[in-house]
Design brief:
The protein contains five helices and no strands. By secondary structure, the chain is mainly alpha-helical.
């Protein structure tokens, strides 16, 4: 019984997602998100990792470094998604870059 309810609920959520309109993307969106990700990673470094507490408590510094690493991994993932998007939508990339 519980499995049926979960499956029904999942299908309902999937239908709702399909009905929602996703925003239209352009090449600038990828650059913008990469820029924001880089800014957050730099902010973690400048304002948190370099704080004097982190020199005394390496476990805190390690956690902050991990958070920064995750953000930088996301940065790389955005670039990979952008490459695929540009392959799938060459006309949209050309409009942005003025080709």
């Amino acid at each position: 019984m519980a499995k049926k309810k979960k499956k029904k609920k999942a299908l309902k959520a999937e239908k709702k997602l399909k009905k929602e309109k996703l925003p239209v993307l352009n090449a600038g969106h990828f650059l913008e998100l990469m820029d924001r990700s880089d800014g957050v990673a730099q902010l973690i470094e400048d304002r948190l990792i370099e704080h004097p507490i982190c020199a005394h408590h390496l476990e805190i510094k390690d956690q902050l470094s991990l958070a920064q690493s995750i953000i930088l991994d996301v940065y790389g993932r955005i670039a990979a998604v952008e490459d695929q998007w540009l392959k799938d939508n060459p006309e949209k990339g050309k409009l942005f870059f003025g080709d």
